[in-house]
Amino acid sequence: MIDFLKGRLVSVYPEAVVVEVGGIGYRVQVPPSLAASLPEPGETVFLYTYLSVKETALEMFGFSSELDRTAFLLLLGVAGIGPRTALAVVGRLGTRRLWAAILREDTGILTTVPGIGVKSARRIMVELRDRLEKQQVAVSAELPASDGVPVLAGRAENEALAALISLGYTPREAREALNRLPDRKLDAAGLVHAALRIMGSQ
Amino acid sequence: MIDFLKGRLVSVYPEAVVVEVGGIGYRVQVPPSLAASLPEPGETVFLYTYLSVKETALEMFGFSSELDRTAFLLLLGVAGIGPRTALAVVGRLGTRRLWAAILREDTGILTTVPGIGVKSARRIMVELRDRLEKQQVAVSAELPASDGVPVLAGRAENEALAALISLGYTPREAREALNRLPDRKLDAAGLVHAALRIMGSQ
Amino acid sequence: MIDFLKGRLVSVYPEAVVVEVGGIGYRVQVPPSLAASLPEPGETVFLYTYLSVKETALEMFGFSSELDRTAFLLLLGVAGIGPRTALAVVGRLGTRRLWAAILREDTGILTTVPGIGVKSARRIMVELRDRLEKQQVAVSAELPASDGVPVLAGRAENEALAALISLGYTPREAREALNRLPDRKLDAAGLVHAALRIMGSQ
Amino acid sequence: MIDFLKGRLVSVYPEAVVVEVGGIGYRVQVPPSLAASLPEPGETVFLYTYLSVKETALEMFGFSSELDRTAFLLLLGVAGIGPRTALAVVGRLGTRRLWAAILREDTGILTTVPGIGVKSARRIMVELRDRLEKQQVAVSAELPASDGVPVLAGRAENEALAALISLGYTPREAREALNRLPDRKLDAAGLVHAALRIMGSQ
User: Fold this and answer.
1) Does one domain contain both B117 and B77?
2) CB distance from A4 to chain B under 8 Å?
């Protein structure tokens, strides 16, 4: 329900920040990497947010990009992965390296994140690869209405573009990655994997 | 609890929009038809809303008119119909065609909406017709206090006017529809049906 | 959690109003008598509120005075009385006549409210009388810190004053009612009953 | 989720205050000692807050310092201690005397708080001492990123500094207390205990 907060940064803690919006201070759980990258308290900040609703708690989680938030939400969909663990994965690995690891089926790198054992790493691997495929099928049915992305290129490229956007990449990031592919004679899945590999290595 | 949002349109997705109100971005689920009809991001928009509260989620659904929201709420009252399916019905058919279909007992048109099979279509048909009748009985007991609608015309017309208003039509829409009826020697139910048919064919 | 709303009155329905505060429209359930007493849409209104939290709904109830809200909250504490019924009692009888009825043990008047049968009326009678007594015991232990009410008069009068304030009367209303009592040689309970009778007959 | 409220003080009750922020009045449960210490209604106030979420209630609790709120949250973690009892402990004893009592294992002073019997006092004692130790272990792993505290002094002092800050003391309070210790040749736990004793006696 709450998509973002834009307000005055008031306090920075190791794993949370407080942002004031209109006289109300919102405590937002963030990865330590994001907390360390924020400006000095007093400056205006913009955080993409996810509102976690439980029977006995309302908690807000914050991200610097839609890309990170989308990865967080996909991780939340994996059985046994709660918001804090999902936040740790996004915070420690960063989304680009996460997708690159998923493509390489590199469970090892996932287990470097506190709270992720071999079993959870495998489950993340299986479910996120599956979602990656599904993401393309769902997306190809409804090409994005936003940002007037030109639907001129071939069907596979457009599907790949839509899939990358629905993973949280901006249209510009997605288009640039696709344009840098040496071989574009691939199906949508192949284009997405190749683009993710390129962005994962940046 | 939250009846509407008035703020800056920030992002448009295929099935959701983000509206900023006072530094907070609210993500609102909307039918694709509404998403496509909104102005450019940056403009001010007004959405009638419904706040769905569940044990693990707070979700906001948005509408361009009280008419659509009222239909959505009545659909929500039908067993087995959740917010997303109700939104799909309102988005795909539009409220006028929905009421016209209910009057014609046309379950076929309901099944064109993804997520609605024959069984759900029949249940919607039965329950919404029943509600339509009840709507009139309840409404006739308490004529609307809003908009100073002149209670001069006959009792049946006033009941029909109140029923149409409680279905979400504005007083002006309801009065115009009743005034265009060739035969006004009907009881309240008859007047309502005839008016809905006229508005359903527009 | 939400004690009041102060904003622009946008819409008035038979049993609810919509108040805009900072770009958000809040739908507030109110008694018809309050809806009918509000100014024209567009004016600024102030409503004391109660936020009802349930597993599948957040609903706001509105009152024109703390007195009405306090009575509503005490009614909510009676087994089997939900917010809508409590609102109907406060709306139909008004708090002063409610307390006068409780003192006279007049269950008949309670049954004139839709949704209140003889059994519920008796339960309301018993529980509110009991609360009335408890209210005084609790209150007498902690005299109000607000409004600098002079604690010069006798102990019984101060206890009665505190009890009336905790029932939602303003300090001025409570003091005036006590000052109009012909016989003030009563204990706190007697003073409260007598004052309620006077205010109930206004 | 809601870290603080900054707004106009509207009403003061024995155990709650109402603060207006942007047209909405928020009712905040506070200890009587805090209610009595607030300025006149109409002035701007700042309260650190805790939003308690239950299936049938959203309640806000308020504090004048992070120190008090941190103690409140640690008390909430003790089995059988709810928000009102935790608020009563913080309100009656004050956080400094609470920590001093925990260090002295003085359960007697805890039982002076309404709602705290010998059994709860013992449980608070055991669990808060345990948390105190844990607090240091957890904290020493992630030295605070806030307020650029110079990490020049010895490792034990920095761990003690971080532990005191995570208990809610400001960096300045923590550093001053450590600087006043006659004997600083202690491990982190010893430094923390000594500092708490000094601050507890102020």
Assistant:
1) yes
2) yes
* Cβ contact, residue pair B18, A4, below 8 Å: yes
Do C53 and C17 fall into the same domain? Answer: yes
Indicate the residue of A2, A22, A54 with minimum beta-carbon distance to B25: A2
Domain that includes residue C137, residue range: 67-200
Give C103-144 pLDDT, tens digit per residue.
888 999 999 998 899 999 999 999 998 877 666 444 433 333
CA–CA min distance B51, chain C (Å): 8
What is the rounded radius of gyration, in angstroms, for the C-alpha atoms of chain A? 18
User: A44: part of which helix (H) or strand (E)?
Assistant: strand A44-54
Q: What percent of chain C has pLDDT over 70?
A: 89
Question: Does C60 share its domain with C151?
Answer: no
C35 lies in the same domain as C81? no
CA C40, distance to chain mean position in Å, is: 25
**D39 interfacial to chain C (CB closer than 8 Å):** no
B12 CB neighbours in chain A (<8 A) are 145-146
Are D83 and D97 contained in the same domain? Answer: yes
D76-111 pLDDT tens trace: 999 999 999 999 999 999 888 898 888 888 999 999
Q: What confidence tier does B135 reach under pLDDT thresholds 50, 70, 90? A: low
The helix, strand and coil proportions of chain D, stated in percent and rounded to the nearest 5, come to 50, 20, 30
Q: Which of A71, A38, A77 is nearest to A199 (CA)?
A: A71
